[in-house]
């Protein structure tokens, strides 16, 4: 710790002298009779005056205290009659005080700009309207603010409401000052006549006022509609003001646009004849276009059924595609299996190519014989059932297995050729088709006696004997 500095001799002398002066003054005050009481009374009066002043200021509500958070906004007026800033003139919204008029000035455009100190959070929008009104017959002025609302933007603190969105009351003096001596004399005579006419009319006025009241009640819907229209007009004027300000900020672009338009019109004027000839050809183009449109309409009428058919087919197309995919897959399998067969058939088919070349003349000759074979083929068709029976029986006789599996089969054939029988016996064997002997049975199996006899058997008889039919077809 550092040591405290010791006072010098001069400092000690000055301190002692100051203490002595204070003691002398206190002694002088005590020497004056009732001086302490007078000082106490004076202090009480000062405190009472300050308290009274503060109470009055608080009750009036016209004072902006330094610790209050306020927002400042401005409003431009063409005129502001009766405005006295700093005199407690209020700013109201819907009849409720929200601020005070704290200042007035003149803009560079010659308008009166009023300064409004508003409560924090007071919402004022770009379509707001400010009206200066008199609160009483003494012409006590206040500002009635219509704050507006969305979709207009909200004004930030420090913004200015333009003069197109403000209005002020017309004073009687401002009207009379535009009148000449003759007009003022006429107005004076009118007021004098009205004063004379209203004297003693207290008994007649109440019924007239009642009738006027009913008239005003009937006019209330009209006034309401006019008020709504006034609000719309106010919003329209506000929007037009915004557009005007935007256009004013783009005057160079507007000037360039006007120059370009002038050059375009000049070019059109220079080419007036060519433009006229082009326009004269437009009727033909219009007719051609109309014909084309008619044909397009007809084509559209034809396309519509096709589109409907395509739409109906589109429902079955997915299933058809799926079936086609399945068929392609199966065809792929078939082609894969047919590959080895084709490869193995190549050695066989190769030598046949030369044979096909030599067989072509023979086939050509057979083509001319084909029509002659049609009757023969038609005659053979009726014998196909007997031929089928013959094949079936032959297969059954020569087969080495049946439904139960392989079998051992033996065939004992007994005929006149295998026996040492004389020719008469052979003749007898030819007529034994109906006998029950074993030789007859063997002959029946082999096609009847006509097979072993000397006569040539016919094909219907042979097939009939094999199938069990003894009668030849006609």
Describe the overall structure.
The structure is a single chain. This protein is α/β, with parallel strands linked by helices and 474 residues long. It contains 13 helices and ten strands. The strands form two sheets. An eight-stranded mixed sheet has the order 7-1-4-3-2-6-5-8, with no helix packed on it. The chain has a two-stranded antiparallel sheet with strand order 9-10. A hairpin with a 6-residue loop joins strand 5 (129-134) and strand 6. Helix 9 packs across helix 13 (459-467). It is elongated and about 195 Å long. The chain starts with 8 loop residues before the first helix and ends in a 7-residue tail after the last helix. The model is unreliable at 432-460 and 462-474 (pLDDT under 50).
Keywords for this entry:
single chain; 474 residues; alpha/beta; eight-stranded mixed β-sheet; two-stranded antiparallel sheet; 13 helices; disordered C terminus
Q: Which strand order spans the largest sheet, edge to edge or round the barrel? A: 7-1-4-3-2-6-5-8
- What fraction of the residues are assigned to beta strands by DSSP? 5-15%
Are there runs of 5+ residues with pLDDT below 50, and where?
A: 432-460, 462-474
What would the principal axes of the Cα set say about the shape? elongated
- How is the quaternary structure best described? single chain
- Succession of helices and strands: HHEEEEEEEEHHHHHHHEEHHHH
Give the N-terminus to C-terminus distance in angstroms.
Answer: 158 Å
Number of helices: 13
Please give the radius of gyration in angstroms: 67 Å
Protein structure class: alpha/beta
The tally of strands reads 10
Mean pLDDT: 75
Largest sheet: number of strands, sense, barrel closure: 8 strands, mixed
Helix residue percentage: 55-70%
């Amino acid at each position: 710790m550092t040591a405290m500095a010791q006072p010098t001799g001069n400092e000690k002398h000055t301190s002692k002298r100051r203490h002595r002066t204070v003691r002398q003054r206190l002694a002088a005050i005590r020497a004056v009779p009732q001086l302490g009481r007078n000082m106490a009374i004076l202090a009480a009066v000062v405190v009472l005056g300050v308290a009274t002043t503060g109470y009055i200021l608080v009750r009036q509500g016209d004072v902006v205290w330094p610790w209050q958070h306020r927002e400042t906004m401005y409003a431009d007026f063409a005129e502001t009659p009766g405005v006295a800033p700093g005199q407690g003139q209020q700013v109201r919204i819907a009849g409720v005080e929200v601020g005070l008029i704290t200042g007035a000035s003149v803009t560079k455009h010659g308008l009166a700009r009023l300064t409004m100190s508003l409560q924090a959070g007071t919402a004022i929008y770009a379509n707001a309207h400010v009206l200066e009104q008199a609160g009483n017959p003494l012409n006590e002025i206040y500002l009635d603010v219509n704050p507006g609302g969305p979709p207009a933007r909200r004004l930030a603190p420090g913004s200015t409401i333009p003069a197109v969105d403000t209005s002020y009351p017309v004073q009687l003096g401002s009207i009379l000052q535009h009148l000449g001596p003759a007009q003022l004399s006429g107005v004076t005579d009118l007021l004098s006549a009205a004063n004379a006419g209203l004297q003693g009319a207290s008994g007649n006025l109440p019924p007239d006022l009642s009738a006027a009241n009913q008239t005003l009640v009937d006019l209330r819907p009209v006034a309401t509609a006019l008020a709504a229209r006034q609000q719309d007009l106010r919003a329209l004027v506000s929007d037009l003001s915004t557009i005007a300000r935007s256009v004013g900020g783009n005057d160079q672009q507007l000037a360039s646009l006007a120059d370009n338009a002038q050059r375009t019109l000049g070019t059109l004027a220079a080419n007036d004849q060519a433009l006229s000839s082009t326009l004269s050809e437009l009727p033909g183009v219009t007719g051609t276009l109309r014909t084309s449109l008619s044909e397009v309409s007809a084509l559209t009428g034809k396309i519509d059924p096709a589109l409907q058919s395509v739409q109906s087919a589109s429902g079955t197309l997915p299933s058809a595609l799926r079936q086609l995919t399945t068929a392609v897959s199966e065809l792929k399998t078939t082609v894969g299996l047919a590959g080895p067969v084709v490869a193995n058939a190549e050695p066989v088919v190769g030598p046949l190519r030369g044979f096909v070349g030599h067989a072509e003349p023979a086939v050509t000759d057979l083509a001319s014989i084909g029509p002659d074979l049609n009757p023969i083929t038609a005659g053979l068709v009726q014998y196909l059932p007997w031929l089928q029976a013959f094949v079936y029986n032959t297969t059954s006789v020569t087969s080495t297995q049946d439904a139960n599996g392989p079998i051992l089969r033996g065939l004992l054939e007994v005929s006149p050729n295998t026996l040492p029988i004389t020719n008469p016996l052979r003749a007898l064997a030819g007529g034994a088709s109906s006998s029950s002997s074993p030789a007859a049975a063997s002959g029946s199996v082999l096609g009847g006696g006509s097979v072993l006899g000397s006569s040539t058997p016919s094909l219907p008889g042979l097939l009939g004997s094999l199938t069990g039919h003894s009668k030849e077809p006609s």
